[in-house]
């Protein structure tokens, strides 16, 4: 799959999200724009623009004249998030199955293979990259800008929660995500919706497990 060249802002966004996901930026800690710019060897403008996107997605909290804080995650917040994500994700998958272009379906099949391979190789960075692509391609294929606006914060926060606690779980959701992509690639709306619900069922059970730890 051909990757698009990222703008500086988009590159900063992707790198900062990855640093949050993999706890290179610690929950509850405060950082300045200058610190983050130095970490990524970038100017402050793309950092500032990337942080605005991340703040909208609730991945960071921005406090004027104080800095940027990485918010803590809770089981309660994640369960509430999944309540909202379930119907939107199912709608997104169903629309994608109906509206995906031939090229998008080809990308879906490639992503289905790639995400399973990443899980098999236990390559967390590659899995994170593929998971972002899975989410982005599904939203793009739905051809609905309102779904795009609704899904971005829900998916980003869900990714962060899973990566934070994944070491406590013996299951892996790669095959579930792959089933969504394969159903969309077939143009099978019913199966795509069911597969999307299966992903949320897994995430809900995964989240509840954290209460017992």
TrEMBL record:
Residues 6-73 form the HTH gntR-type domain. Keywords: DNA-binding, Transcription, Transcription regulation. It comes from the Bacteria. It comes from Endozoicomonas euniceicola. It holds the Pfam family GntR. SMART domains: FCD (SM00895), HTH_GNTR (SM00345). This is GntR family transcriptional regulator. Signal peptide: none annotated. The keyword GTP-binding does not apply. Gene3D superfamilies: GntR ligand-binding domain-like, Winged helix-like DNA-binding domain superfamily/Winged helix DNA-binding domain.
């Amino acid at each position: 799959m051909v990757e698009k060249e990222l703008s500086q802002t988009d590159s900063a966004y992707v790198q900062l999200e990855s640093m949050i996901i993999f706890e290179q930026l610690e929950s509850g800690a405060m950082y300045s724009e200058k610190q983050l710019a130095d970490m990524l060897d970038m100017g402050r403008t793309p950092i500032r623009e990337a942080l605005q996107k991340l703040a909208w997605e609730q991945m960071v909290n921005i406090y004027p004249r104080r800095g940027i804080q990485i918010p803590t995650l809770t089981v309660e917040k994640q369960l509430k998030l999944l309540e909202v994500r379930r119907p939107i994700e199912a709608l997104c998958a169903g629309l994608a199955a109906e509206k995906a272009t031939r090229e998008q379906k080809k990308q879906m099949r490639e992503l289905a293979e790639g995400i399973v391979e990443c899980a098999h190789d236990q390559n967390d960075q590659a899995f994170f990259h593929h998971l972002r692509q899975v989410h982005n391609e599904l939203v793009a294929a739905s051809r609905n800008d309102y779904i795009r606006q609704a899904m971005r914060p829900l998916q980003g926060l869900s990714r962060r929660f899973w990566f934070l606690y994944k070491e406590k779980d013996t299951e892996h959701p790669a095959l579930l995500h792959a089933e969504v992509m394969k159903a969309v690639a077939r143009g099978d709306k019913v199966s795509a919706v069911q597969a999307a619900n299966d992903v949320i069922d897994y995430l809900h059970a995964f989240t509840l497990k954290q209460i017992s730890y």
